[in-house]
Design brief:
about 450 residues; alpha/beta; Aspartate Aminotransferase, domain 1; Aspartate Aminotransferase, domain 2; 2 domains; seven-stranded mixed β-sheet; four-stranded mixed β-sheet; 14 strands; globular; binds pyridoxal-5'-phosphate; transaminase activity; pyridoxal phosphate; Aminotrans_3
Length: about 450
């Protein structure tokens, strides 16, 4: 693959951008020796500055349920941009988008728009503390909620010997620059284990404002919840008078119209959305029932933001929701079917080539991991058995054949409404070749 123009850009970028880009995940850490600089995208395809074409399964970390430059998104953004990009005043489209969201989310009465999942999660935790008057929050090993200090603990893969006893996981800060105070009140528990959660709630419930979790573990490949686990977790939280906070930054408007809450029949107290919601624009939201959401009224729990509810982003969000729900939720059904097909066929290719690659999915979210286990059910199994280097090689061999699989070894791949059957077939053929080559 010719990458001369990317190389030139990388050399320039290294003079002015840290790691040649704007997030470590996009740079040479995951794309060696330098990333392909992208020029444009259309549907499920992207093109780099050397003219190389890729079928995109990374889709901006899940921000593009309709793929790139969807005609309806282009049309609405072109129509509206001439009327101004952002007002920081109340907007009609803000009301319309919120109405649409609330109509899709039975557990939600009100929403408040933000820009990123990180901000939304930071606000969710502050709300929980404000409402309950309690200090501590409980998160889970391997769950990522953005890079806010208070939740930036035990989110990365680690050597299994550093994790401590599962009854009392070692809390591992994910960054320098965190004061001990910033995560002093953040407890960490193993996920997908009812007994572990019960023990933590018994010990700390009186001090706990909320339990926050992803409905599907989606920053450690894709690890689905065990049957009944989430519902039981919600019940246990209610029994201990602790708010149940579901972070749907990834799963929201992706795994079902109502997200993981719909898929697993949950009524979370606090929910956060991001990624898919903005269809490529930075739009996030905090949502919940009235008695929770009233906590961010002025004078109670503070939530601000100059860029909240950007006009163009909201038009994109509204249009995405309309498109995905049209014809009896056809968009949601389509991305789930594509994800299922990719998962089944990649697993078959792995079997045929004798490779220990396992693909796990929840609907449109799927991820290949190299492990000798039949399935990965929790973070500790992931840390102990998954060969991340092998995934790195596999995804690189895929990209060399024009199939863009996430270079980030722990972040999943996804489908969008624009992937075609021939995109799937080409990707499966490429996977077969990559796995043969790796033998
Ligand atoms: C579950 C979850 N919550 C929150 C975030 C943070 O979102 P953002 O990157 O928009 O700040 C992420 C990002 O990957 C996420 O996966």
């Amino acid at each position: 693959m010719k990458t001369d123009n990317s190389k030139i850009l990388f050399d320039r970028a290294m003079q002015v951008l840290v790691e040649g880009c704007s997030s470590a995940s996009r740079g040479p850490l995951n794309y060696k020796p330098y990333p392909a600089y992208m020029r444009e995208g259309k549907g499920a395809r992207i093109w780099d500055v050397d003219g190389n074409e890729f079928i995109d399964w990374q889709l901006s970390f899940g921000c593009l349920p309709l793929g790139h430059a969807h005609p309806k998104i282009v049309e609405i953004v072109q129509e509206k941009v001439a009327g101004g990009t952002h007002f920081a005043t109340a907007l009609e489209v803000e009301v319309e988008t919120a109405e649409l969201m609330v109509s899709m989310l039975p557990h939600v009465d009100k929403v408040r728009f933000a820009n990123t999942g990180t901000e939304a999660c930071m606000t969710g935790v502050r709300m929980a503390r404000g409402i309950t008057g309690k200090r501590k929050v409980l998160k889970f090993e391997g769950h990522y909620h953005g890079w806010y200090d208070g939740l930036l603990v035990s989110s990365n893969p680690q050597y299994p010997t550093t994790l401590g006893h599962p009854n009392d996981p070692v809390r591992i800060p994910d960054s320098s620059g965190l004061t001990p105070g910033s995560w002093e009140d953040t407890l960490v528990c193993v996920w997908n284990d009812e007994d572990a959660l019960e023990r933590m709630l018994d010990a700390h419930g009186h001090d706990l404002a909320c339990v926050v979790m992803e409905g599907v573990m989606s920053n450690m490949g894709v690890i689905p919840p065990k049957p009944g686990y989430l519902k039981r977790a919600q019940e246990m939280c209610r029994a201990h008078n602790v708010l149940f906070y579901l972070d749907e930054t990834v799963t929201g408007f992706r795994v079902a119209p109502g997200g993981a809450a719909e898929l697993y029949d949950l009524q979370p107290d606090i929910v956060t959305y991001g990624k898919a919601l903005g269809q490529g624009f930075p739009v996030a939201a905090i949502a919940g029932p009235d008695h929770i959401m009233e906590s961010i009224e002025y004078g109670k729990v503070l939530h601000y933001g100059s860029h909240n509810a950007p006009r163009l982003g909201l038009y994109a969000a509204k249009t995405m929701l309309e498109e995905m729900t049209r014809d009896d939720q056809a968009g949601f059904k389509k991305i789930a079917e594509i994800g299922e097909q990719m998962t089944t066929r990649l697993n078959q290719v792995a079997k045929d080539t004798g490779q220990n690659m396992r693909v796990q999915n929840v609907g449109s979210m799927f991820h290949p991991v190299f492990t000798d286990l039949d399935a990965i059910t929790d973070y500790r199994e992931f840390c102990a058995t998954v060969d991340l280097k092998k995934y790195g090689t596999f995804s690189e061999l895929m990209r060399n054949q024009g199939i863009f699989f996430s270079g980030n070894k722990i972040l999943h791949n996804l489908s969008c409404t624009e992937h075609t059957q021939s995109d799937i077939d080409a990707s499966i053929t490429a996977a077969g070749k990559a796995l043969e080559q790796m033998k």
